[in-house]
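User: Need the bound-state model for nicotinamide-adenine-dinucleotide:
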Amino acid sequence: MRFKQPIKRIHHAPPRAGRGPKRPVSSTHGLVVGAGWARIKTPAVERSDGSDHTSMSCGRVDRGIDLAAPLLRDAPPDRSRRAFPHFGLVLMSQSRVGLWLIGAYGGVGATITLGLRAMARGLVDQTGLVSALPLFDGLSLPEPGDIVVGGHEIRSTSFEAAAQEFRQNSGVFEVGWIDACRPDLAAAAARVQPGTLLGAGPAIQKLGSWVGDDDETNPRHIIDRLGADLDEFARENAIRHLIVLNVASTEPPFPANPAHDTWTALDRALRAGKGSILPTSSLYAAAALERGHTYLNFTPSLGASIPALAELAESTGALHGGKDGKTGETLMKTVLAPMFSQRNLRVLSWVGHNIFGNRDGLVLDDPANKSSKVETKDKVVTGVLGYKPASVVSIEYVPDMGDWKTAWDHIHFRGFLGTKMTLQFIWQGCDSLLAAPLAIDLARLADLEKQRGGRGLMRHLASFFKSPEGVAEHDYFKQFQMLVDHVESGRPRDAAAAAGKPPRPSLDPRD
Ligand SMILES: NC(=O)c1ccc[n+]([C@@H]2O[C@H](COP(=O)([O-])OP(=O)(O)OC[C@H]3O[C@@H](n4cnc5c(N)ncnc54)[C@H](O)[C@@H]3O)[C@@H](O)[C@H]2O)c1
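Assistant: Bound-state model below.
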C-alpha cells in the first residue's frame, strides 16, 4: 500500500505520459493499493466529531483494489458516514459536492447549512425534500453528508450565530441540533469569504461591509478574486462538483445593456473596468460560470439571466438554472390557477398581500428591491391562465413576525350564468424552512445532471422557480411532470433495474 502522508491539497495532475493506464483508475472510497501511475482523487476524511478533515493521496497503483469496499459493504445507507472504528475516523466519499452559498449567513443559507449537517448526523429526517421522494430512488444523488458548504458574505458573523438569531426571532430549530452541529457549523464558517457589494444598491449596502481588500470598483478584479475563492475551496476540500447558489438579498432590477448580449462584448466591458456594467449577483455568476461551475439563482436578482452569461456557460459547459425559489404563496398560485383554467372559471382579480419580518423583508421594504420580487410573483397567474386578471401584489415588512410569512390571497372569479364567487386562502409558512429544502434539492438534482453529462440551462428544474428560465410554462403540475420525465429518461439502465422500473421516454424538448 503506498499512501503518502496526509497532505493538504488534492493533486489534479494527470498521470505522467507513458507511465500509467490511459484512463485514470479511481477508487469508490479512495483507498487503493498496487503499483503504477494512476490519477486517484484524494479522499477527504472527517474526524468522528465532524470537526475537521484531512486529505490523503496515493500516486502509483497497479490495479485499483479498493481496500475500503469490503469494510464498507455492510455499512449503513448514508454513504458519507461510514465508521472505521479502528481508525477512529469517518471516511467521506471521495467525490464530494461543494455548495457555495452567496449570502451564506442569511436565513436560507444558515438553514441549508444546519439542515444538511443535522440530516447527515441523523438528527432530523428528510421531510420537505422533493429529492427524497420515491421518484428518485436508485439514483446517485449526493447524500447530505457528501455536501460541503462554503460561501461569500458581506456580514462578518457565523453560522452558529445566524442559527441562534433565527431560533430566538422565529422560534425554529431545536437547540440540541445547534449544539450537536456546533463543530460542523464552525468548520463551514471557516470556509466563508468576504463578498462584494459592487452594484448591490443602497438597501443591501446598509446590511454589511465585509468585502475584499481589492479594488472594489473594478468588476474584472472582483470576478477574479471571487473565482480564486471558489478555486481554493474546491482544491482544499477535494470537490468533484462545485455548485454556486445565490441566496443573497434581492437586488433592484438592473437595466439591460448592449454589453449583456454577447460574452465578447461583456468581457471587453469588464476588462475596461466599467463598474456599473453588472449587478453584484451577475459578478458572482460570471466567476462561477467562467470556471465551469454550476450556478443556481434562488433569488429574483439578475444572476446569470443575460445572453452573455448563458453563452459563457455554454462555452465552459457549466450548468445553470433560476430564478427565484417558488416556496409559498407563489407555489399556491401555480397550483390553484390551473384549477380555474380546467374548470373554465374566469378569474376576474387575484389580490395577494404578504407580510413578514425577516432580513429579506427588510431589504424588500425598499421600493426598488421590492419591485424585483413583485414582478416574479405577479406574472405567474397570467402565465397559467393565458389572460391577465386585475391583480395586486403587496409585500410588507412587519418586524415582529420574524421568518413567519402570512400571505392572504383573495381570488374573485366568474362561473356559470355569470355568477361571481370568491376563493380566499391564508398561507402561514416559515420562509427559510420552506426555502432551504428546495435549495438542497436543487443542488442534489444539479449534481445528478452533472453526473449525466448535462450542460447549460436546466429547464427541468422549472417547478422550483417563480421565474423559470427558458420555460414559459407556469402550471406547477406540468412543470413537475417535466422533472419526472427528465429524471426517468436519464435513469441509467442498472439504476432502473434496481428500482424495478424500465426507463421511460422523455417529453423534455431538450432530449
Ligand atoms: N425564504 C424564501 O422562502 C425565499 C423564497 C424565494 C426566494 N428567496 C430569496 O432568497 C434570498 C435569501 O433570502 P433570506 O430570507 O435568506 O434573506 P436574508 O436577508 O436572511 O439573507 C441574505 C443574506 O445575503 C447576504 N448578502 C447580501 N448581499 C450580499 C452580497 N453582495 N454578497 C454576499 N452576501 C450578501 C446578507 O448579508 C444576508 O446574510 C432573498 O433574495 C430572497 O428573496 C427566499
